[in-house]
Amino acid sequence: MSGDSEGGTYTLLVELSIPTTIEVGALGEHRLSAGTYAYTGSALGAGGFARVDRHRRTARGEHDVRHWHVDYLLGRDEARIDRVVRSVGVDAECAIAERLPAGPVDGFGASDCGCASHLAALGDGSEADTTPGSLVRNAHASVTPARGGQVDIVGGAEPARDE
Fold first, then answer.
1. Of 144, 112, 124, 111, which is closest to residue 11 (Cα–Cα)?
2. How many angstroms separate the CA atoms of 12 and 85, rounded?
3. What's CA 104's distance to the chain center, in Å?
4. Shortest CA distance to 73 belongs to which of 100, 34, 43?
5. Are the CB atoms for 101 and 122 separated by under 8 Å?
6. Angstrom distance (rounded) from CA 101 to CA 96
């Protein structure tokens, strides 16, 4: 099960195939360019990483409830979860979000903390050490071992076999 019930911190790598405008609850309307985004959240409750499965269902159009800011992005047909980077057993949501590039929407996913945003706009991946996956994995790796957890990468749209 690879830490599913234990939970921790996760970052969704979301690919937006075309520019789109999203209405994000109280944050209002925002135009996002096509590209890769990283949304960092926590899954520390009783269900652990089941929250990530809910995000996958929203991205596949199987779940229509918009509870979190990320639901407004994932509910768009042009958005797809490419992969998920997880820090199993670690509460590091803000520390990881702060290590990623600036977000395109102030306050996104950060209504319960003092962070600027938990949604990051990632680069185009033109250099090997700055690919979206590398940026996110490095952000997780920079805080996770010191907190006693492990970093893993799992499938995006569908759960990985070991989940």
1. 144
2. 7
3. 14
4. 34
5. yes
6. 10
Residues contacting residue 75 through CB under 8 Å, at least 6 positions apart: 58, 59, 61, 64, 66
Q: What pLDDT, in 10s, does the model give residues 69-115?
A: 899 899 999 999 999 999 999 999 999 999 999 888 998 989 888 89
Q: Is 159 exposed, middle or buried (0-12, 13-18, 19+ CB in 10 A)?
A: middle
For the entire predicted model, the pTM comes to 0.87
CA distances from 86 to 16, 104, 121 (A): 21, 22, 18
Cβ partners under 8 Å of residue 79, min gap 6? 14, 15, 16, 17, 20, 59, 73
SS3 sequence of 95-125 = HHHHCCCCCCCCCCCCCCCCCCCCEEECCCC
